[in-house]
Amino acid sequence: MRGKSRTAGKRLAVRSAGIARLAAFGLLLSLGACASSGPDALYGLNAPRGFETSGRAGGRQILVPEPSALQALGTNSIAVVDAGPVYTYFPKAAWSDTLPKVVQAKLIETLENTGRLRGVGRPGESLLIDYQLQTELRAFELRIDGQDRAVVEIMARLVNDRNGQTRASRVFRAEVPASGTGVAQAVQAMGAASDRVLAELAAWVVGSV
Question: Which InterPro entries does this entry report, sorted A to Z (predicted)?
């Protein structure tokens, strides 16, 4: 009985330590958020260029709607995710717009940077569309659940705009180690992971249409 009690006690201590770490991190973020009504810094993403694509330039025009996302990623807050998953956010820092809009803008720019499409646009821009690029943000965060790293995951689906049939679909994911848990290190790692995903996604689109 004593052996079992000691084992249970150790497990409880480990669990309590993990909960305490998460609570302390959450308290730090909450205190920072209460100290100011708005962010002190706004962060953006880059649009990759100069990456390899297959196929030749064509006359296709692509519509890029705003990506869908759960509420946890559908804001301008910069997400930090611990095991669970449990979402918290950096205080006094935010994306330059809601994250889906930032990703939409940079995805359009990345597709334009390929130089292999006739046109790329948003809904309402009166383009004669060949394909819709429907996307879903599944991860865009700093993970602190054992190894500090940025994780970006986007599901993409190419849909023929004339008959509604799916031409192709794929999930794009990248993980990049973070040099620290501060907002600057987190955004740098998320930017690197985003670059990989956007470049691969754009090359896939060009090769699929």
Answer: ABC_trans_aux
